[in-house]
Amino acid sequence: MATIVKKQETIQDKDQVKAYLTQKGLVYESYKTPESLDLILGQKGLSDAEKEEVLSGLEYRFDQLKKQHGYKANDLVVLHDEVPGISDMLAKFDKLHIHTDEEVRYIIDGSGIFGFIIDGERFEVHVGKGDFISIPANTNHWFTLDQTMRIKAVRYFKDNSGWTPVYVDESKVLINA
After folding, report:
1. Known binder of ligand: residue 80?
2. Binding site annotation covers 99?
3. CATH annotation of 3-163
4. How far, in Å, CA of 129 to CA of 131, rounded?
5. Model confidence over 89-145: pLDDT tens digits?
6. Annotated binding residue at 126?
7. Three-state secondary structure call for residue 80
């Protein structure tokens, strides 16, 4: 279940989280992951074959999202403290940036933090297992792992070409520090 952390407020109620994110133009849902995947998802890392097994086990979700949102492809990203180059990888996304295509994540294990500056307001969304978030194109955000240093997320794409981060000067978008 996602948690919103703002300057002087924390929102944990599922309905309030969804309402707040909807108001900010983000899509948030909470989906249960199939219990049949629990054993494999409990592993720290996954081989390519295991990633394919997980994606196959979630094919029903992809089919739903293709119909609802027009996604054409998906993949599974597995990040943890033993991934070679993890610090450099995270450094690409822990600074304020946008993408020219929407960013869509379904968290199936672990946890992380998406940060946003929308309408001049800074807030964080702490995501965990079962959280689905869609960030519209050109939305100021950043991402980092939390203290667990572990996340598995299915990424959904309409077009892979919009995935280069375009960095944003925070001082030009932050009004309500």
Report:
1. no
2. yes
3. 2.60.120.10
4. 6
5. 999 899 999 998 899 999 999 999 999 999 989 999 999 999 999 999 999 999 999
6. no
7. strand
